[in-house]
Amino acid sequence: MKKISVLMTIAAVSLCLLSCGNKSKKAAQTAQETKSQVEVQQEEYIKMQLDSLAAELLRLKPLDFVKKTNDGNIALTDKEKQVKPDYLINATAINDLQTLSQKYRAATLIYVDKEVATLYEMPVADYDAALTKLYLDINDPKVKEIFSADDPTESFKSFYEACKENGRLHYFWDVAAAAIVEHTFIASQNSEKFLASFDDESASQVTLQIALLTIAMDDLAEINPEYKEINEALKPLGVINAISVDQFKEQLEQVKDQVSASRATLIK
């Protein structure tokens, strides 16, 4: 953003000089054209950065943070399964959604929480029904493809390309942000269990994933109001900079309440 700020400052000075030195209609028109050019350059610059950020996020698999039971990375004992989590989203939360962005985010939250409910052998029929309704409302086959796949990585890449081609990239970032916020929230509820398979490298990778997403949304929110809600939801995660599992667990505990609030804002 420093390059963008410098560019905008130069443009602002140029506009001022034009205005002071020549009050004619032609000067005003030139100033307006200059401003439009700066805005276009700003957006193009961020788009180039987003391609790189998205590629890195996809490599880090933002939908594969909470591991499935059949991966062998999380194994709950019968005693642990008896204590059902009370922090999972209620499927009825979808009834009050108004915007498409909220529905993309809600589908992501429900997808993640359904995985956790499955770990605890809890009923998931309500989640399945909620997802079915959201698929119909969203009317985007790529979303159903992502959340129905055994490995969503390739589908998520295809989703990014489709969103980019159709000028709907903010929906990709809705899903990516919701996935990271929810995974972080779930991990903060029981870090000993959900981070059991983590080593220092994987903790650093998740930290990088969070950093990349917060950077992208902070830049986008400056020029596009569609990203302001996501940016606000991600802000509490900006303090996470762990390079080890122990450090990651400590930081999750520190931001636990804030992340809970962030999660709530995603569908409000």
Characterization of this structure:
By secondary structure, the protein is mainly alpha-helical. The chain has 13 helices and no strands. α10 (200-223) packs antiparallel against α11 (228-234) and α11 runs antiparallel to α13. It is globular. Mean pLDDT is 80; it is low at 2-33.
* Main β sheet profile: none
Estimate the strand proportion. Answer: under 5%
Helix fraction by DSSP (H/I, runs of at least 4): over 70%
How many distinct helices? 13
Q: What number is the mean pLDDT?
A: 80
Secondary-structure-derived class? mainly alpha
How would you describe this structure in keywords?
mainly alpha; disordered N terminus; 268 residues; single chain; 13 helices
Structure in a nutshell:
With about 270 residues, the protein is mainly alpha-helical. The protein has helices at about 1-20, 25-60, 80, 100-120, 125-140, 140-150, 155-165, 170-190, 190-195, 200-225, 230-235, 245-255, 255-265. It is globular and about 65 Å long.
